[in-house]
């Protein structure tokens, strides 16, 4: 019983209350006006049944009395009234639909704002990287993109229900007033029984959504692999095409099977008894009316009203295409968004701070050290801590290189430094002050970062760079200087619209850059942030896609440009790392070794082992004559000397 009540509340009452509140916020008086208009449109349906029945009822007398007689004029008057009602209905129905569309767009607009707000405003990226909350975010976003299943459709659909139910109310009142209140109650019951059946079917589909969505995700993924450009190369080279088609087919079938099963069950069991019950009641009511008509208890007009209103009312026990899909599915996105918002709220140890860019930059503190003090961190997905009691001090003005095997936690450390996550235990202290106590935007303005998986924005080249310090306005001359420093000058010169060229070939005049060129662009972005006042430069595998000469040039330039900046360099290329002032080896979530290149080689520990291993690979390559460009940048070259 408790469950039943809870479900009723959760599925039917709560969403509607919520929706009404949204309608008020999003549409001011528009929703109320549309509801009023819909009430009139619905009542006109009842009016037409009455007026047209009067026409039918007056025909025999008019025919007997002939053209021009008072009876004839009475028939003409009834006909004109019926036509007027019909005309009013014809004019007001599209108007109501247009207002419904307006309501839909306003409500959807509100939800788009909320979706972006919820997604972008969290301090941490935990909700975007956690499978469960990400699924909710996706569900909310997908819901907004689906043509007839958006929150706006739920709102417009709710308003459209006013037409249907006011019409039903009018028919029931007419039957009650003209025939009998028992007949009215019986017809009202039949209509609602059929209606509830249709709603149950739709509701069943909604309950299947959580079951079907994960299965659909799989089939969507295979579809994406098959038709998208990302996997085009590998699917052909590895001969995966038939395999993908087969996996798509089987996962799509697995996703749709629960729906077929439920559809059979619901359609057979729910509609069979409802249809039989309705048929019996309607036949009984109509038979009684006909008998009363034959006995003279009902006039022809009353009989016509009764029969017409009965048929019209029962026809309302159907699926409402303009309402039911929207009202049933449109709120899935709303609920998913609410769940995502609570997950964001739960993941936020510190409420997000929204600061103006300029003030954030001016309020930036200077410092002499950043200390990771006993920092422990685990991702929400569980498992052993990625960082486990880490103690590490980054000294201002020094370049610290961070090395370690794959998965040793280097990128995670950067995420904590940028406050994309908060430590599970311990703190990151800047001159003794916990960075968690600083306004997050102020702190982030201190950091210029090239992430390992930096973003390739499908925007102009200048936008791609300017994002490094979006609050500042840079003129094209300054941006051009940055591109030159990042080794992009020749590339920019060759672009059709220079700095304004859009970096995606699917746009008119757009171009596609190579992986290495994109990486230079990400470096340019970070350099801009540094120019704008960031005191910490983080480079997570900044040269992974650069050729060896470009890498060498980058580090020559880099050393010059970052002199006096606090730099954290993550790289698997020991040729890059060895130039750092200090090298830290991370292992098991802690600092394993810490020193200069020379001191770590002398120590002959993990760093020395990895360095020599990489050096021997380069030596083998060079001795095999495969690469004459390794030159002075490779540790192998260093070792050979
Ligand atoms: N969003 C996440 N959710 C759950 N676990 C994660 C997440 N990101 C990383 N991990 C896990 O944390 C561990 C450390 O990952 P991290 O990316 O920090 O390593 P890394 O040292 O930078 O590795 P690489 O050298 O391969 O770049 C890995 O075991 C990884 O699977």
UniProtKB/TrEMBL annotation:
The keyword Nucleotide-binding is assigned to this record: yes
Membrane topology value: Multi-pass membrane protein
Segments passing through the bilayer: 39-60, 72-92, 168-190, 271-290
GO molecular function: ATP binding
Main location: membrane
UniProt keyword annotations, A-Z: ATP-binding, Membrane, Nucleotide-binding, Transmembrane, Transmembrane helix
Chain ranges of the ABC transporter domain: 370-613
Keyword Membrane carried by entry: yes
PROSITE patterns: ABC_TRANSPORTER_1, ABC_TRANSPORTER_2
SUPFAM superfamilies membership: P-loop containing nucleoside triphosphate hydrolases (SSF52540)
Matching Pfam families: ABC_tran
Localisation: Cell membrane
PANTHER family: ATP-BINDING CASSETTE SUB-FAMILY B, ATP-BINDING CASSETTE SUB-FAMILY B MEMBER 6
Protein name listed in UniProt: ABC transporter ATP-binding protein
Organism (species): Plantactinospora alkalitolerans
């Amino acid at each position: 019983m408790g469950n039943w009540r809870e479900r009723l509340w959760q599925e039917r009452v709560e969403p509607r209350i919520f929706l009404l509140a949204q309608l008020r916020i999003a549409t001011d008086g528009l929703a109320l006006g549309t509801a009023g208009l819909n009430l009139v449109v619905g009542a006109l349906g009842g009016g037409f049944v009455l007026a047209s029945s009067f026409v039918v009822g007056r025909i025999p007398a008019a025919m007997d009395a002939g053209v021009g007689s008072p009876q004839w004029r009475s028939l003409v008057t009834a006909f004109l009234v019926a036509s007027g009602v019909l005309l009013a209905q014809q004019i007001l129905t599209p108007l109501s639909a247009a207002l419904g569309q307006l309501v839909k767009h306003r409500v959807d607009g509100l939800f788009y704002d909320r979706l972006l707000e919820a997604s972008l405003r969290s301090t941490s990226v935990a909700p975007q990287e956690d499978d469960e909350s990400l699924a909710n975010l996706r569900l909310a976003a997908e819901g907004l993109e689906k043509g007839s299943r958006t929150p706006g459709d739920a709102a417009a659909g709710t308003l459209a229900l006013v037409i249907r139910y006011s019409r039903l109310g009018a028919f029931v009142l007419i039957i009650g007033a003209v025939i009998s209140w028992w007949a009215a109650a019986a017809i009202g019951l039949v209509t609602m029984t059929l209606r509830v059946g249709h709603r149950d079917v739709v509701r069943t589909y909604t309950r299947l959504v959580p079951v079907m969505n994960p299965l659909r995700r799989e089939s969507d993924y295979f579809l994406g692999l098959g038709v998208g450009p990302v996997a085009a190369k590998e699917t052909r080279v590895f001969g995966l095409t038939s395999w993908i088609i087969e996996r798509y087919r089987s996962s799509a079938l697995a996703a749709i099977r629960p729906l077929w099963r439920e559809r059979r069950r619901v359609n057979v069991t729910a509609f069979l008894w409802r249809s039989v019950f309705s048929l019996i009641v309607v036949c009984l009511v109509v038979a009684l009316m006909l008998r009363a008509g034959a006995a003279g208890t009902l006039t022809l007009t009353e009989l016509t009203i009764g029969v017409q209103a009965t048929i019209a009312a029962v026809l309302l026990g159907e699926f409402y295409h303009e309402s039911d899909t929207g009202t049933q599915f449109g709120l899935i996105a709303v609920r998913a968004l609410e769940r995502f918002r609570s997950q964001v709220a739960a993941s936020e140890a510190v409420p997000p701070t929204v600061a103006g860019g300029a003030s954030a930059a001016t309020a930036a503190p200077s410092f002499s050290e950043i200390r990771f003090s006993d920092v422990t961190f685990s991702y929400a997905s569980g498992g052993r801590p990625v960082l486990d009691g880490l103690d590490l001090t980054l000294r201002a003005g020094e370049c610290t290189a961070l090395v370690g095997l794959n998965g040793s936690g280097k990128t995670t450390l950067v995420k904590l430094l940028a406050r994309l996550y908060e430590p599970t235990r311990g703190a990151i202290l800047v001159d003794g002050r916990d960075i968690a106590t600083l306004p997050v935007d102020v702190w982030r303005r201190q950091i210029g970062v090239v992430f390992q998986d930096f973003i390739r924005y499908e925007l102009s080249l200048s936008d791609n760079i300017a994002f490094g310090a979006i609050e500042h306005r840079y003129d094209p001359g300054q941006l051009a200087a940055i591109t030159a420093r990042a080794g992009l000058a020749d590339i920019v010169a060759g672009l059709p619209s220079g700095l304004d060229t859009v970096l995606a070939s699917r746009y008119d005049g757009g171009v596609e850059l190579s992986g290495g060129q994109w990486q230079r662009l990400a470096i340019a972005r970070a350099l801009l942030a540094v120019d704008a006042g960031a005191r910490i430069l983080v480079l997570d595998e900044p040269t992974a896609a650069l050729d060896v000469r470009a890498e060498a040039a980058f580090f020559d330039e880099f050393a010059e440009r970052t002199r006096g900046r606090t730099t954290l360099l993550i790289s698997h290329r020991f040729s890059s790392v060895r130039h750092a002032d200090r090298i830290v080896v991370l292992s098991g979530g802690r600092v394993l070794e810490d020193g200069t290149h020379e001191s770590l080689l002398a120590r002959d520990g993990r760093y020395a082992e990895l360095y020599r291993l990489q050096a021997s690979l380069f030596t083998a390559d060079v001795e095999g004559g495969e690469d004459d460009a390794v030159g002075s940048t490779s540790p192998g070259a260093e070792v050979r000397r």
